[in-house]
Every structure is written in C-alpha cells, then in structure tokens.
Amino acid sequence: MLDLTQPQFVKHVIMHPFEGFEDLRWKKAGDMRIATFIVFLLFFQQLAYNRLYGFQYYSDYDKVFNIIPYISSSFGLFILYVVCNWAMCTLFDGEGSLRNIYIVTAYSLIPYIVGYLVGTFLSHVLVRDEAIFIDTIQIIGLAWTVVLFISAMKAVHQFTFFKTILLILLTLVAMVLCIFLLVLLLTLFQQVMIFVFTLYTEISYKFRV
Amino acid sequence: MSKIKRLIAGAGALLMMCTFSSAVSATESYDPYGYDRWGDAVSSQVGYSAEEFVDGKMIKGLYERISVMEGFDFDDDKWKSLLQLKEPSDIFVSHDEKLYIVDKGNNRIIITDFDFGLIDILDSFEVDGKATKLNAPQGVFVDQYTGSIYICDTDNDRVLKCDSEGVVDKVFTKPTSEIYSQDLTFKPEKVVVDKAGNVYVVVGSVTKGSVMYDINGEFLGFFGANRVEQTSEVIMNAFWNMIATQAQRDRSVRSTAVGFDNFDIDDMGFIYTVSESADVKTDMVKKVNPEGTNILATLGAEDVVFGDQPPAYWSIYTKNSSIVDIDIGPNGELNLLDFAHGRVFQYDEKANLMFVMGGIGNQLGTFQNAVAIETNDDLIYVVDSRKNGITVFKRTEFGEIVTEATNLYNSGHYDESYGPWTEVVKRDGNYRRAYIGIGNALLGQSRYKEAMKYFKIALSRKRYNRAFEGYRDEILQKWLTPVAVTLIILLIAGFVLKQLEKNGVIRMPWNRKRGA
Predict the structure, then answer these.
(1) A131 touches B: beta carbon within 8 Å
(2) Mean pLDDT score of chain A, rounded to an integer?
(3) pLDDT for res A191
(4) Which residue ranges in chain A fall short of pLDDT 50?
(5) Which parts of chain B sit beneath pLDDT 70?
(6) Taking CA atoms, what residue in A is nearest to B460?
(7) What is the pLDDT of residue A7?
C-alpha cells in the first residue's frame, strides 16, 4: 500500500488534493531536497515571469535590473512563511515540525509554478487576442495551489478546516509583524554602525593631531 | 612592433574623433533632447538651429525711416527707443509674405518682408475720421481672405480692424450683453479670425473661453472654454455642495476652469488653444472644432503630456512647463512655446514630439522672456520681450529628413517613408519614432521578422504583436504540414509496433528483461 518513491509521492500528493498530504504524513514521506528544488523553481518562475515574458504582452522597465526583489519574493517570502507558520502552530498545538511544514508548503506550490511557467512559455507563441488561454492556465494553477495549500496545512497540523484558515490568516499577520521587526532591527543596526563609525573617526582624529 | 601598432591605433582614434565632432552640423547653445518610451530624456540631434537674432538695428530701413521724421533727436531717449524694438509681444506671418511685429513698448506695428526689410510702420489710425493711437498692443492677426489687419489694442480696451493704411473699419469693444459680466475688464490680448469672418478674442479676465464676435461686430458668446481640472478639492467641494443649503452654497468657493491664454487657427478652421497655468494639466493644449469641443483625444493624443515631462524627483527648483503660445506649422505641426524653460516644443499633427529647442540664457537660441512664436515654412520665429528681439530658427538637414518622413508616415505612405526613416536612424539612434516608422514600412511589405526587431527596439508592444502574428502565420504555413505528417507517421508506427509486440512477432528492447 502506497509504496512510492519520493518523486512518485510528489505526483501522488498533487493529483490527490484531499488525501495526498494525509498519506504523506502517514508514510512520513517527503524530501527536503525536492522541496528545496521546488523553491529554486519558484525563484526561476518569478524571474521568468518578469524578464522572459513574450514581448507582445509585457515589457518591463529594463534599464535597471535588480535581483534582490526576486530573491526576497521567492526564497525570502517562502522561508518567512514557513517560520511564521511554525511559530503560530506551536501556539495552536499543531503537529507540524519545521521540516514538515517546509516540505508540504513547497509541494503545494507546484501547480502555481507550473501554471505560470507554462503561461510564460505560451506568451511566446500566442498573440494578444489569445491571452485568455494564458490567463486560464495561470488561474487554474493558482486555484489548484490554494486547494493543495489548505489541504497541506490541514494535514500537517491535523486541524479542522476552520482552524486551518484561522492559522493561515494568523500566519499572514505574523509575517507582517516579522517584516516590521526586521526593518526596525535594520534601522537600529544602522544607528549602531553610525555610532561606532563616529567613535572611530573621533578617536582617529585625536591620534592624528 | 606593438609600439607602432599603438601609434597607428592612436592616430586612428584621433582621426575618428575629428570626423565625429565635425559630423555635428551645428553647435547650439543648448542640448537638444527627446523622450524615450519611458518618458526619460535622451539626447537627440538638432532639428532646428538658431540662425540669427533680429533686434531693431537688424530691421533694414527702420533707422532711415525714423531718422528723417520731424523733430528727430538722436540723444532723446524717446526717439532712441523708436529705433529699437521695445517689449515686442507678438509676431504674425501673413499670407502675402509679410511679417507683422507688435512693438508693444513703442505702441506700433512694424511690417517687414521675410528678410526683415521694413515695409511700413502702423502707429496712427483713423477711426471715423478721427486720428487715434495704440496703447500697449499685444496681438495682431491678418485675415488671409480679406487682408484686414486685426490689432489687440490692449490698454485701450478694444480690438481694431483696419486696412494696411491704418483706416479702421470696425472697433470691437467690451460686449454690453448680460452674458458678459460687466464687472470684468476687457483687455484683449490675442485675436484670430476664421473663414466666416467671426472674430475670437482672448481676454485676460475671462475664463469661459474666448470672446466671439460675428462679422458685423455683434457679440455672439464665448468659445472653447477649458474644463475644470478634477482635483481632490474640486470633488470634495462637489460633495459638500450636494448636502449644503443654498445659503451655504452661495458662500462656498466656486470651481472655475483656467482660461486659455493664447491660440492659433489652422487653414482648416480648427482653433488650437494653450493655457499658461503651470499647475493645471487639464486642457493645457486643445484642438477645438467649430462646436467648441476638444478633438485632440480623437487623434489618439488624450494622454500626451505636452511640454517637459515631469522629472522623477521634485524640488523647489523644478518648474512645470508653462505654454504661452502655439503656432500651427505648414504641415499641421504644433509648435508650443514654453515660457518657464524658454523652449520650443515641436509636435507633429498627431501630437508626437519631434524636436525640442531653446533654453533659458543669453546666447543665441536661448531666451529670457519668450512670449510669442510663429512659423514660416522651415523657419520658426520666437519673440523675446526682454531681449527685445526675434530669434530665427532654421530647420537643419536632419530636421528636414524627419519632417519629410513624418509627413509621409502621417499621410499613410509607410513604404515611401522607409528611406527617410532609415536616414533618421543613421543620424540619431535615439529617435524612437523612426524605428516605429521603419517597422510599419516592413510590416506593410510582410517582412515580419525584421518588423518585429524594429518594434522591439521602439518598445511598442501593440505593433510588435501585429508583426508577431504575421510572423507566426508564416512559420505555421511553412512547418505545419511536415510536422503534422511526421507526427501521424510516428503515431501509426508506434501503434503497429505495439500490435506486433502483442502478437509476439517482435519484442521491444526495454521489455526484454522483464519478459525474459
């Protein structure tokens, strides 16, 4: 029963939105390497969507290119979500460990990534009148990911449906708080750095004269 | 050996530098520029170069005319100023090849030929047999059908219609109609006349448009008012007025549109208006049909920002463009004069920017107080009321090519415009319209792949899409049959092989192990 290899499990999970993640948990399956690979794919998808889209649909302001927004909107956001979700679930007696949350979150992102990558590919083949096909594929991918995502959170923490929704919302709030604290911290460090630098300058003047 | 090589390379570089610097046709006192697809300024070639600056001394025959007048005294300041232009405020090119210069400070109209040779000075007029003088005139217009001269005699509160001898035929004064609020002053600043002889006068205190008279001097009403800009304050006021009582409403601030400050009429009878206000962007430039509605939007120019594009970072030193005058060129070009930056912006008839020239300064080609603009075929005259003279710009070779290409392109001759546009790209790689022009010409010749390349450079997605559609059809026509045939053959082969394997005739290599 369900003697699947890790790659086969990925397929099983995606094709069975409602019991897939329960099976994953029951079998203690899931691979960190595959999950990390998916996050890399997410990064590439973000990049492709902005930089490699068909010219007839989209032209970015390409005089400057900065990779940081792409990193933070893929790796950064993903890790922030995983950590915040884990932090919240400990308050709610969720069962998921950091590793499990990492794996199921990554797995549930696959339809979204695939949908947008296919859309990006199609944007080089279709003209603007046919944009509806691209939109449809992307929306289906997104909707599928939402279903998988809720199911994944529900399974990994063994919550009821409403508790899962509540957890997700609270996780979002926690993420906002985290970002706020991060900004605060950065400003603080900046101040400290300026202070240290000023001190250094003062002392160096003292010795120079 | 390497030393010799280096020497040769150095000499070559020097030679190249020399040729490049001489390739620039004229050295202007300002940097010509245009805008790219993102609205960022990019350097451009010179489309018009400043030829000469004409002040009173340069007007041939003016000294001779004044110096023989009765009581002339060279040391008297009053006579001295008559030898010069003093605060000139307007210029007009008439159809019988004369220049009319409004010399506001000297209360006269100077008429010259195109070489600035004096023809006549209009300073005294005859109204019903009585002599009269001008008082700070600000505008002049010559009707091309009747030859009558219309002069805005601003500080005398009247517009004169006279012939070339100065005999006044009709005087337009403040309307007595109750539509025209009698509290308002009547200081006519600019005047135009349409084919039917209707007279339109811009009056500084009127915000409802221009004051319009019929051919007999009867007041008809106002023409071509601007709209009120939809700011948050205006919307808020509208909301409060909805719930306020009548008494409160009467006390509240009215939202009034900015009146336009200058206008011009083209040969088709369309009136173009400009508003000087630097803060209000609504109806900054309008093309008004006889009904009084702005039809620039129907030309696809509803979201064109005229004048200088807003810079990315605002500071207290940043000025908005303030368009004080407009003139319609021979090919329907819109020439706008920006008072704030002392620049002339030339747009084609579809409101695409062609050239920018001028600046604030003291050199030739820059201005202190630019007030009026007029075109004469390939010349542009700009009147500066502080420098007391007229700057003449002449179209350069580059400008000539761009104009030719633009005219061909706008009249739909894409194929013919291909040559000139390629020439434009050779001279100025930043000229975005040229890439679009070339792309459209290629598109017309069904050279889709090349058209795609040019539209991509021009960053025009819509046109790229059209070229891409053609290119895709081409590819499909070429490859669809072979690909489909191959696919079908492969499918049939696979099916046959599977059947054969099922019947035990052959065995596939990948099934051998399990089967064995």
Answers:
(1) no
(2) 92
(3) 96
(4) none
(5) 1-26, 310-315, 512-516
(6) A56
(7) 87
Distance, in angstroms, between B29 CA and closest chain A CA?
A: 29
pLDDT at residue B464, as a whole number = 94
Closest approach of B460 to chain A, Cα-based (Å): 8
What local confidence, expressed as pLDDT, does residue B314 receive?
62
pLDDT value at position B295? 87
Give the model confidence (pLDDT) of B334-370 as tens digits.
999 999 889 999 999 888 999 999 988 899 999 999 9
Please identify among residues 25-84 of chain A the ones whose CB lies closer than 8 Å to any CB of chain B.
55-59, 61, 63
Q: Please tell me the distance in Å from A141's CA to the nearest CA on chain B.
A: 26
Half-sphere exposure of A66 (CA within 13 A, CB side): 6
Provide residues of B within 8 Å CB-CB of chain A: 38, 40, 456, 459, 461-462, 464-465, 468-469, 472
Cite the DSSP H helix spans in B71-204: 77-82
Angle formed at CA B490 by CA B485 and CA B496, multiple of 5 degrees = 125
Residues of A in contact with B38 (CB under 8 A): 61, 63
Choosing among 3.40.50.300, 2.120.10.30, 2.60.40.10, 1.10.101.10, the CATH entry for B44-414 is 2.120.10.30
Residue B338 to residue B320: CA distance in whole angstroms: 9
- Residue extent(s) of CATH 1.25.40 domains in chain B: 415-516
Is A128 at the interface with chain B, CB within 8 A? yes
Listed in order, the ranges of chain B carrying CATH 2.120.10.30 are 44-414
The whole-number pLDDT of residue B515 equals 46
| Nearest CB to A59; choose among B461, B468, B472 | B461
How confident is the model at residue B184, as a pLDDT?
Answer: 87
CATH architecture of B415-516: Alpha Horseshoe (1.25)
pLDDT at B16: 54
Distances, alpha carbon B237 to alpha carbons A116, B222, B259, B436, B457, in Å:
46, 26, 20, 45, 46
Other beta carbons within 10 angstroms of residue B136's beta carbon come to: 17
Q: A with B: how many residue pairs have Cβ under 8 Å apart?
A: 22
Could you tell me which of B217, B130, B236, B227 has the C-alpha nearest to residue B173? Answer: B217
Q: Rounded to the nearest 5°, which phi and psi values hold at B199?
A: -110, 130
Q: Whole-angstrom Cα distance, residue B389 to residue B372? A: 11
Contact A125 B472 (CB under 8 A): yes
